[in-house]
Design brief:
Elements: H1 2-15, H2 20-27, H3 36-49, H4 54-57, H5 61-69, H6 77-93, H7 95-98, H8 102-113, H9 122-134, H10 140-144, H11 147-154, H12 163-176, H13 184-200, H14 207-220, H15 227-236, H16 245-258, H17 261-264
Length: 266
């Protein structure tokens, strides 16, 4: 259904044009249908449509965003996941609108990560992936109040048995460091708490997780108060460079012991 919705969205965006407002209006009631299949299909369609700027051109964005946001408490996990995907897609379809609605979108992602009725973490996974997309466009003031909560919430996913959860949580953590300057001391504690795990996962069996760890450590480096360690992360953890893990860890330990005053007094 999700793939089919993507194909329909693409065709609608290209050819439906002025008819889209009426189509959207007629579909909105099905978002509350008693039939789960209808809610899933319509939410998937709306989520994909939000991936296109056509909804902004036709002044549909706010209407669709409000209706998709309303599906976050749906009884169906897949509907809740698709709702978050749609909100995250605004970063692609209408990035200039993310700044305007930043606080609301961020709150939706945080609520998704806190979903208590999500045994396979599908909602949390989508929330983390979508949040990483939104962070490039939100106002810093909107993320600051949630920064610590998000960092603490995603930390357990670093060691998840599911590789996609490990990857998404680690990438998100790296992206969060862009906003850590104002909360440097507080966020520094989160870097310390995750440092060993990130270093260990440089040997993760999944290449995408290794890539995520390299990215996160490169992003964390400037916040660690150790120029030598920061340089090591930037030079040795490039995506296109192979890593001699034993030698790398040996040098990291040397820097941690001798060069990082801020770490030695913790």
């Amino acid at each position: 259904r999700v793939t089919r919705a993507a194909c329909v969205r693409s065709a609608m965006a290209r050819h439906a044009g002025p008819r889209l407002p009426l189509i959207v209006k007629n579909l909105i009631p099905t978002l509350s249908s008693v039939f789960e299949s209808q809610r899933i299909t319509t939410t998937a369609f709306f989520a994909e449509l939000l991936n296109s700027n056509v909804v902004n051109d036709l002044i549909l964005l706010e209407t669709m965003m409000d209706n998709v946001t309303g599906r976050q408490k749906d009884a169906c996990v897949l509907v809740r996941m698709l709702a978050l995907r749609g909100l995250g897609n605004i970063a692609t379809g209408s990035p200039e609108k993310v700044r305007k609605h930043g606080a609301k979108l961020l709150a939706s992602m945080v609520n998704g990560m806190d979903d208590k009725d999500d045994p396979h973490n599908l909602v949390a996974l989508e929330a983390m992936s979508s949040l990483s997309k939104l962070l490039d466009h939100v106002e810093e003031r909107d993320i600051q109040s949630m920064l610590l909560h998000i960092a603490i919430r995603i930390r357990p996913f670093f060691d998840s048995d599911q590789s996609d959860l490990r990857q998404s949580s680690i990438v998100l953590f790296g992206n969060l460091t862009k906003f850590s300057e104002r909360n440097c001391e507080v966020f520094f504690e989160q870097i310390l708490n995750g440092l060993v795990t990130l270093l260990l996962h440089l040997q993760d069996p999944k290449p995408e997780v290794v890539k995520a760890c390299k990215f996160a450590l490169r992003m964390c480096g400037p916040n660690m108060g150790c120029e030598g360690l920061c340089d090591m992360f930037l030079n040795h953890l490039r995506e296109d460079r192979s890593l001699h893990y034993g030698e790398f860890m040996n040098n990291v330990c040397k820097h941690l012991v001798s060069g990082c005053q801020s770490l030695r007094h913790r």
